[in-house]
Amino acid sequence: MIDIHSHILPGLDDGSRDLEESLAMAKEAVREGIDTIVATPHHANGKYWNDSTQVRSAVSLFREALEKHNIPLDVLEGQEIRVYQELLEDIQSGSSIMLAGSSYILLEFPSSRIPDTIEDVMHELRLLGITPVIAHPERNAEIAQCPDKLLRLIQLGALSQVTSHSINGLFGKSIQECAVNLCRRNLVHFVSSDAHNMSNRAFGLGAAYDAAAGLLGHEYVTYYQANAESLIRSQSIEIWEPSSSKSRKWYQFWK
Ligand SMILES: [Fe+2]
Question: Which is one GO molecular function term here (predicted)?
Fold first, then answer.
């Protein structure tokens, strides 16, 4: 399996605290069947600043440690970037980076709302040939209340990623329902762990795919897995047609 969103690098953010924890997380990832993981430390969220130089250095050191400990996990570079004023300049200057060297960038919104500037930012990103992947939309209050706001962003060219624990129910029933509904409406393109630690925020990716197979159908699991592979290979992503809020296909599910 490929995991495109994780906080596995040591000491950069609120994820792994140190190398020992990162190695334990890496072993757990491999045990679950993850062979490739994109390290996406928080960047520009007001608390953490991890520019490309810091991320690449940390990835390089961690890859060496994994090799030394014979842990067969391929770690690739990335960031989870809060939408901020200088984002476009920083992409052009190289201090903000894409996922795994692709043309896809992982964007984080505040939990309470969608940034006012998002449509302008998306337009500029698209002009640069960059596709934004919106991290965990199911945990954004504005999207949870009105999924059509995510539909609008998808129609403008964004993709989205739900968190494994949302599908698994770890964050509660309402977030699970929201996540599954977004999936049903084809507003989701990836499932990934957003793993932070070994205690309450580990991977759960295999479990999420199992849950998704039961709740949505195996074809969704195949779709998410193929999309993650396409992303790390810098290939275009197959995009299923999203459905409107009036579609019974998704609405029926929670009736
Ligand atoms: Fe994250």
Answer: protein tyrosine phosphatase activity
